[in-house]
Amino acid sequence: MKKLIVLLLLVGLTGAVAFAGGSSEATTEEEGFSGSYTFGGSTTVEPIALGAIEAFMEMHPTVKLSYEGTGSSSGVKGVLAGTYALGGASRALKDSELEKGAVPNQIAADGLAVVVNNSVPMDNMSSEDCAKIFSGEVRNWKDVGGPDKPIVVVNRDEASGTRGAFLELLLDAHYGKKKGKFIADAITTESNGDMVAKVGTTPDSIGYCGFGFIDQAKKFGAKPLSLEGADPTVANVKSGKYPVQRPLNMASNGELKPGSLEKAFIDFLLSSEGQKIVKDEGFMAIR
């Protein structure tokens, strides 16, 4: 009788495995996944991830997934630390992150739109003027063809992949690689949503956001600018006419392992259904 009780206890302990944030100890995809997994990182990637999570959990009802919008740098750090199973990054991964073992898994592409408050009577801007505004070299709208009013710059926090991509693609492109610097006294926001809300409610302001947040910006009272005469559209990004674009990644700690939940989730994002979610959220599919 005692041997039977011990055997039952061992079986019970084996079946009670808990799956924490960065765990990849799931059953095979054929058997169905189970347990709880936490993803996190870029607020740009967040709407894509949430849409995919909802669909993925319908396919695998015994698994629970969540996503925390903490910023790209935090997402990659979380993956490397084991806090997150996958980390959203709205930029290319840094050399320092790659050296530590982070691997980018691109799921979509995105353009960065420059947005201004509706009080700004401008519809187009050169990349050079835009870089000068965000660096603080230009402080008044009159110097770029607008009214004689001070420019209010709205920026993202330093953990933001959108900020990093904008710095590299616009300021560094104008001032030289790693020489671009943002104006110090800008208003700081913590997400794309916060950014478009702040620009939309702040007269004479300018900011930037992912293409997926342009409609939200319009609802708040902001509008996207054309750059170099090209409207911020998916078609213009694909043709190369629109100059500011970037990859959207889900970073993993090392290469994705066959049979793991992480690989199954990335495979789903790259499937026709997953890429439809990408497009439905206003971003560019890569397949």
Account of the protein in words:
The protein has 11 helices and 12 strands. The chain is α/β, with parallel strands linked by helices and 287 residues long. It has 2 domains: 18-109 and 247-280, Periplasmic binding protein-like II (D-Maltodextrin-Binding Protein, domain 2, 3-Layer(aba) Sandwich), CATH 3.40.190; 110-245, 3-Layer(aba) Sandwich (D-Maltodextrin-Binding Protein, domain 2), CATH 3.40.190. The strands form 2 sheets. Strands 1, 2, 3, 4, 5, 7, 8, 9, 10 and 12 form a 10-stranded mixed sheet that branches. Strands 6-11 form a two-stranded parallel sheet. The protein is elongated and about 60 Å long.
- Provide the succession of SSEs: HEHEHEHEEEHEHEHEHEEHEHH
First and last CA, distance: 60 Å
From the alpha carbons, calculate the radius of gyration and give it in angstroms.
Answer: 22 Å
Beta-strand percent range = 15-25%
Report the uncertain regions: 1-20, 22-30
Q: Biggest β-sheet, characterized? A: 10 strands, mixed
The percentage helix is 25-40%
How many β-strand stretches?
Answer: 12
CATH hierarchy, class of the largest domain:
Alpha Beta
Supply the CATH superfamily name of the largest domain: Periplasmic binding protein-like II
CATH architecture of the largest domain: 3-Layer(aba) Sandwich
Mean pLDDT: 90
> Helix segment count?
11
* CATH fold assignment of the largest domain: D-Maltodextrin-Binding Protein, domain 2
Counting copies of identical and different chains, the oligomeric state is: single chain
Number of separate domains: 2
| 3D shape | elongated
Estimated structural class: alpha/beta
